[in-house]
Amino acid sequence: MSDHIDVRLKEMGISLPEAAAPAANYVPYVISGNLLHISGQLPLEGGKIAVSGHLGKNVDVPAGQRAAELCAINILAQAKAALGGDLGRIKRVIKLNGFVASVPDFVEQHLVINGASNLIAGVLGEAGKHARAAVGMAALPMNAAVEIDAIMEIA
């Protein structure tokens, strides 16, 4: 299964980065029973925030979707680290919680978080289909435009 996921990643032109270290006093993931909880991931690329600011002000929806895709890539990188390199252990992505830095009258958070949902489902297939939330926030850490956490069922 993991080989199939690696093929999908390659076909999509995605190379998973090393899992990012925590930016404060928390751990990047917790495994409890058959659940993997991944802490909120930012749109990091090359170790830096790639999309910063607020949707509806200085970030448009396509840039927000790209931020969400980067968050999803970083979620997969954390899952790979948590699972000893074997993404095939993911039985199901249960839920993504998406947080979008946005101005008060911006109401397209759901479209922004689609960037992550589409990527996760594209990489993991049926196991990547999940419940989710897409919530507007006044601000996010390090001025990131998007932050996403995840809960996964694992083998």
Automatic annotation (TrEMBL):
Source superkingdom: Bacteria
Annotated Endoribonuclease L-PSP/chorismate mutase-like domain residues: 8-146
Official protein name in the record: RidA family protein
InterPro entries for the chain: Endoribo_LPSP/chorism_mut-like (IPR013813), RutC-like_sf (IPR035959)
UniProt organism field: Rhizobium grahamii
Pfam families found in the cross-reference section: YjgF_endoribonc (PF14588)
Transmembrane stretches, start-end: none
UniProt-listed PANTHER family: ENDORIBONUCLEASE L-PSP_CHORISMATE MUTASE-LIKE DOMAIN-CONTAINING PROTEIN, ENDORIBONUCLEASE-RELATED
